[in-house]
Design brief:
Layout: H1 2-41, E1 43-46, E2 61-65, H2 68-71, E3 79-83, E4 91-98, E5 103-107, E6 110-113, E7 116-117, E8 137-138, E9 143-147, E10 165-166, E11 170-179, E12 185-186
Antiparallel strand pairs: 1-2, 2-11, 3-4, 3-11, 4-9, 5-6, 5-8, 6-7, 9-10, 11-12
InterPro entries: LexA/Signal_pep-like_sf, Pept_S26A_signal_pept_1, Pept_S26A_signal_pept_1_Lys-AS, Peptidase_S26
Keywords: Hydrolase, Membrane, Protease, Transmembrane, Transmembrane helix
Subcellular location: Cell membrane; Membrane
Length: about 190
């Protein structure tokens, strides 16, 4: 019987070591997954200005999905974050209204895509100033036309300082408002 107990002690010690190493591996895997999820789906941006009211207010904190457009193309009415052409120092948040290869024009406050009247979500205010879109704008195969939901206060594709947005400028899709807590929810 002594032999039995003498052999069992080293096995119990090895079992504890295996469990500790297993927990360590699990912990590293969970931390790695959490960092990946936060980096891809949880990048925080703070809305600056009133250009996306009433959907997003000045100071709202939103989450940006950087991975989404690796698997699908940006779609009309997606709310996206993109870098300015001026060195990427400024990040804008706007709604895509014109897709690659389309012709965009704003006449009498109405958006036309390829000559057809295009309805905007009811959250988008009246477009008083057509800017560059007074004449027809032809988007290249890698360009998008963006518009703020509050066009009177929005710097968007209607103006030369923003212009058409190249796919390489788009940082990701704005998908969730995380602050203020009272307005927590998905961005549409």
């Amino acid at each position: 019987m002594k032999t039995y107990y003498q052999e069992e002690e080293p096995r119990q010690g090895r079992g504890k070591l295996v469990r500790i190493v297993g927990w360590g591996v699990d912990l590293v895997a969970v931390i790695t997954l959490a960092v990946f999820v936060v980096m891809m789906f949880g990048t925080k941006l703070t809305m600056s200005g009133r250009s996306m009211e009433p959907v997003l207010d000045n100071g709202d904190v939103v989450l940006l999905d950087k991975l989404w457009y690796n698997f699908s193309e940006p779609k009309r009415m997606d709310v996206v974050a993109f870098e300015s052409l001026e060195g990427g120092s400024k990040t804008y948040i706007k709604r895509i209204v014109g897709l690659p290869g389309e012709q965009v024009q704003i006449k009498d406050g109405v958006l036309y895509i390829n000559g057809q009247r295009t309805e905007l979500p009811e959250t988008v205010g009246e477009i008083v100033l057509p800017g560059l879109a007074e004449g027809e704008i032809c988007l290249l195969e890698d360009e998008y036309f963006v518009l703020g939901d509050n066009p009177d206060t929005s710097e968007d594709s209607r103006f030369t300082n923003v212009g058409n947005v190249h796919i390489s400028q788009i940082k990701g899709k704005v998908w969730f408002r995380s602050a203020p807590f009272a307005r927590l929810g998905f961005v549409k």
